[in-house]
């Protein structure tokens, strides 16, 4: 599904060049669950942004399902991102004025012709994440764990090929974090490809494969 070859990403900051990624080679197959780990500044977020088509490498190749994403313009990247990739962030990014159901259905606003039966799928996803009875509530009426579960339901609405999770339990208490991680495990068990970025070794250990970054490069890539 994912193939990176020699991917580099650098930024100009205060007259200096910051090399966030310094030549990353990475292959991720359909249905894998991979944890991306590494110390602060190792390149985890930069790598996730490229995998999610939120950014482009300066050099190197990124193939997603055989397509060279590195050559895509903004419109093509946005289309791929909306149709094939789901995101779960540390900050839930739920719109406060919308109900839980409306937040879950938010990705439809970027589609001229939404797939049929999408509202029924949204309701089924809310039931799956234990929020069916909260569908008409506002985010402010939910706990942190409930908001993150709503965010996961939203990420899965259009049945993306890839789920990217960036420190998804960072703002949660231990019980809510366990619930969210169990849900991510369930998503993977259903055949979804999952890439999880975390600094927590215990969370990373849930993934069958761990890729550790250091100084913008892959330091290790191991199966558990």
Number of strands: 10
Q: Unreliable runs, pLDDT <50, ≥5 residues?
A: none
CATH superfamily of the domain at 29-45 and 85-223: P-loop containing nucleotide triphosphate hydrolases
CATH class of the domain at 29-45 and 85-223: Alpha Beta
CATH T-level topology of the domain at 29-45 and 85-223: Rossmann fold
Radius of gyration: 17 Å
Mean pLDDT across all amino acids: 92
Explained architecture:
The protein is an alpha/beta fold and about 220 residues long. It has a domain at about 30-45 and about 85-224: P-loop containing nucleotide triphosphate hydrolases (Rossmann fold). Helices cover about 30% and strands about 30% of the residues. The chain has helices spanning about 45-50, 75-85, 100-105, 120-130, 145-155, 175-190, 200-205; strands at about 1-15, 15-30, 35, 60-65, 65-70, 85-90, 160-165, 195, 210-215, 215-224. The strands form two sheets. It has a six-stranded mixed sheet with strand order 6-7-8-3-9-10, with helices on both faces. Helix 5 runs parallel beside helix 6. It is globular, with a radius of gyration of 17 Å. The mean pLDDT is about 90.
